[in-house]
Design goal:
globular; alpha/beta; 352 residues; seven-stranded parallel beta sheet
């Protein structure tokens, strides 16, 4: 596709998608509201690229979205704009309903009106790609099971419930109105430019600064980790070659307990940047009261994506985590303003 509208393109996954598409020659119209986790600094590497246009705006602003679609002759939409942090959804679920559910509905309304006005090849080639999460499936036992595209939805948090609702709306717009859609559900992402409220970047920065490293419960909860650049490549592939009406699971096949993740970060940082007192960072680990509704385990089966579309993750967890830590060590300019401003590392999600 020559021109794609990316929503949420200043966020963590969205900015990775935008950088990937722009570097590949696609013209990207980047629509982002710039809420707390949207960061224009994540787009610095492509800020002067002639095929990147940034627009600060809301996905719920139907006239704005329609104007962008029509004036830019957009051929595909990649919808990543979302409130995404479980802990914040516990403290304030209203924002998640407004953005993830109502916002998606309004974006779908604009996309449908635009698509209906297209003709010929432009209409036949248009795609709406909705990007979602494996958390819509609920959780798995610690010792068995894996999420497939046929796994029933069973969301556990306000965040995952809002994403499940948006998934259902996208499918309904395909079945009822014929809107050409594809969907994808991913496992936990990590990598550069990750807002430091999530486990991996928060642990890296706290450990780097010698601060305590809180872990929920006993650290037994398991996640399947996916390097963000691998995810971006998968999303671009799904947009252009995915079968209409189908969903594709994107996972890294890298299951780790939260405790294993934190311990690995400690060990890598001890080797890269030892603490002044020489103490191992594992001594900073502190177990804290678990959050409400904490899912036990997520695990993605990406077989459909791998066999039908030919995607393969390039990073395993060890190589991807090392690259991520090195990026945070080398890019204080990006995260230091966040730590001193919008998010200093405080615990969220305690109101449940």
């Amino acid at each position: 596709m020559r021109t794609v509208l990316v929503t949420g393109g200043a966020g963590f996954i969205g900015s990775a998608v935008v950088r990937h598409l722009v570097r590949g020659g696609t013209r990207v119209i980047n629509l982002d509201k710039l809420t707390y986790a949207g960061n224009p600094a994540s787009l610095k590497a492509i800020e002067n690229a002639p095929n990147h246009r940034f627009v600060q705006g809301d996905i719920g602003d139907v006239p704005l979205v329609l104007e962008l679609l029509r004036s830019e002759k957009v051929e595909g939409i990649m919808h990543l704009a979302a409130e995404s942090h479980v802990d914040r959804s516990i403290d304030g679920p209203g924002a998640f309903i407004e953005t993830n559910v109502v916002g998606t509905f309004r974006l779908l309304s604009a996309a449908l009106e635009y698509w209906r006005g297209l003709e010929g090849e432009a209409k036949a080639g248009f795609r709406f790609h909705h990007i979602s999460t494996d958390e819509v499936f609920g959780d798995l036992p610690f010792d068995s099971g894996i999420f497939t595209e046929e796994t029933p939805y069973a969301p556990s948090s306000p965040y995952s419930a809002s994403k499940a609702a948006s998934d259902h709306f996208v499918r309904a717009w395909h079945e009822t109105y014929g809107l050409p859609v594809v969907l994808s559900n991913c496992s936990n992402n990590y990598g550069p430019y990750h807002f430091p409220e999530k486990l991996i970047p928060l642990t890296i920065l706290n450990a780097l600064e010698g601060k305590r490293l809180p872990i929920y419960g006993k650290g037994e909860n398991v996640r399947d980790w996916l390097y963000v650049d691998d995810h971006a490549k998968a999303l671009a592939l799904i947009l252009t070659t995915g079968k209409l009406g189908e969903s594709y699971n994107v996972g890294g096949r890298n299951e780790r307990t939260n405790l294993e993740v934190v311990e690995t970060i400690c060990d890598i940082l001890d080797a890269r940047a030892p603490l002044a007192d020489g103490k191992p960072r594992r001594a900073l680990i502190e177990f804290v009261t678990d959050r409400p509704g904490h899912d036990r385990r997520y695990a993605i089966d990406a077989t459909k994506l791998e066999t039908e579309l030919g995607w393969q993750a390039e990073e395993n967890f060890d190589t991807g985590l090392a690259r991520t830590i090195d990026w945070y060590l080398d890019n204080r300019w990006w995260w230091e303003p966040i730590r001193s401003g919008s998010y200093a590392g405080e615990r969220l999600g305690t109101k449940g």
